[in-house]
Amino acid sequence: AVASYPRLTSLLSWAVFLSPITALVAYRGPYYHLGFDLLSGGRLTGFLQNPIVLGMWAVIAVLVGLARYFAATKRWVRILIFIWLSTLANFIFWSASRAAWVSLTAGLLLWFLFLLQKRAGIVNVGTLAGLSLATLTVGFFLLPNNESLKIKPWVADRVVTFVTNPLEHQPRLQMWRGATSVGFKNLWGTGILSSTNYAPQISFVIG
Known about the structure:
Layout: H1 6-18, E1 39-40, E2 43-44, H2 51-71, H3 75-95, H4 98-117, H5 122-141, H6 152-164, H7 171-185, H8 195-206
Antiparallel strand pairs: 1-2
C-alpha cells in the first residue's frame, strides 16, 4: 500500500536514514546531566541506551541510505549521503555489536545480489562495492582514539578476534546457531514469556 504513494515512501525512507542523528551528541562525550549516559563501557548506545539496538538500527539506516544514494540524481546530494553513510558506519563500529556487523555484511550481500538479479550493470555493482568500502573505511577511522576513550584499537581487535577465532571459542555464535535451530523448528513462534522453556533446547544444540 505504501508503494502506491511514492512521495510518502520517499519521506519515510529519509526519516529512517536520518533517524540515528541523535547519536551524534556522543561525540562530545558522556552526557550525564541528561540523566543517563550515551556510552556503555565505551560502546555507543546513543539515546537507545543499548549498543546492540543502536548498531542494528544503524544497519537498517545504512541499507535504506544505499537506496537513497542510487535514487539521487544530484551530485551534491550523493556527497551528503556518503558523508552520513560513513557516520552510520562509524556508529556500527562504535557499537561493537557483532550482531550488527553480521547483519550489515548480510545486507550488503543482498544488495549485491539484488543488483545482479536486476542486471543493473557493472557500473552500479562497482559503485556499490566502492561505496561500501569507502564508508566502512571512513567509519572506522572516525572512531574515538584519544586519551579518555581509545575505542579504535579495541574495536579493531574485536573485529579480528570475531573473524579469526574458531566457532568453539565463540559462545555468541554458538548461541545464534542454537537459537536459529530452535527457530526453524518453531516457525510460528514460541509464545510470550517462553524463553525460559526454550533456553535448555538452545543450550543442547550448542552442545
